[in-house]
Amino acid sequence: MCILPGFSVAEGVLLNQEVFRMNKFPVQLVVSDIDDTLIHKEDHLNEKIIQTIEELKRRGIQFTLATGRMPYRAESYAGDAKLTVPFIANNGSILYDRGRMIWCKMLYAKIIQEITQRYMERNPQFTVIFSFTDRECPLVRTEWIRKRLGKYKGYDQTLGNTPDVWNQTVHKIYVLDDARSGIIGAFADELEYYRNEISFFQYGEFSIEIVAGGCSKASGLTRLLEYLSIPADCVMAVGDHTNDIELIKKAGIGVAVANADSQLKAAADYVTAGERDLGVKEAIEKFVLSE
C-alpha cells in the first residue's frame, strides 16, 4: 500500500492536494465492492455514480468491481457500469469478463463435509448452499430458504445431504444462521483447521462464505493487475467490510466508505464522509478526477 505523506485517517479528511499531485503513482484503475459500497439493496447502480464512472473512462481510467457475489448476480451492475475490463467475483476465486469466466479456482466440497454435516445435524436451521456457475442450491430446505423461494436462482433445487453431493467441486459454500445464535462464530473457529485448503469470510453471526484456498479479493486483484499490466500502486480500491481489508491494503490508495466496518476503517488510507455510492463518488472525485 502506498501511504501518502501528510495523510490523516479520519472521515472526510482529504489528502493535501499539493502532496497528492506529487504522488508518482497516478491512478489507472478504480476497484469497488458492490454490496453496501456501491449499493444498499438496489438492483442497479445510481445514475450519479454511473456518470462518475463514465467520466473516469473519458479520462482513460479503468473501473471495475470486486465482489463476493457470483458473476450472474453481479452482471447487472457490471452492465450499468459498462465495464470494459474483467471484474473480481466470488471473493477472488473468479475473474469474469463480459459473459465469460476467464479464470476460476474451484472448492472441493468434501474438505469441510464432516464439520458441516455435524453442524447441520445439531442445528436444523443451519442453512448450507452450494454455488455453481449459474445457480445457488441449498442442501436442505430450511425455513430461511422457504421464505426466499423464487427470489434466487436455484433455491428451489434442493441437493440433499448425501456423499455424492459432497464429492464434487463448487465455486462456493455459503452457510448461515438466521437466528444469529452464535453457531456461526463456533463454526468459523473450527474452519481454521482447514486454512491451508480453504479461504473463508465471516459476516458477523449471520453467515460465512467458503471458497478455494488462497482466494480473496486481494488475490483476485493481483491476478487482474497481471492481466492488465497495471501496478498495484496505480489502483484505488473502495470497500465496506472485513473481506475488503486485504484488497484496500494492496491498492495504492485504500478507501473505506463512511458506513464501513470499523476494522476496514482502521486499515484504510482514507474514510469518506459519504456512505455507500456517495462515498465512492467522493473518493473518485477527490483522488482521481481532481487531477
From TrEMBL:
Which InterPro entries does UniProt cross-reference here?
Cof, HAD-like_sf, HAD-SF_hydro_IIB, HAD_sf
The source's superkingdom equals Bacteria
Molecular function terms in GO for this entry?
Answer: magnesium ion binding; phosphatase activity
User: What SUPFAM superfamilies does its record include?
Assistant: HAD-like (SSF56784)
Instruction: Determine if Translocase is one of this entry's keywords.
Output: no
Provide a GO CC annotation, any one: cytosol
Which Pfam family, giving just one, matches this sequence? Hydrolase_3
Q: What is this protein called?
A: Cof-type HAD-IIB family hydrolase
Keywords attached to this entry? Hydrolase
Q: Which organism is it from?
A: Hungatella hathewayi
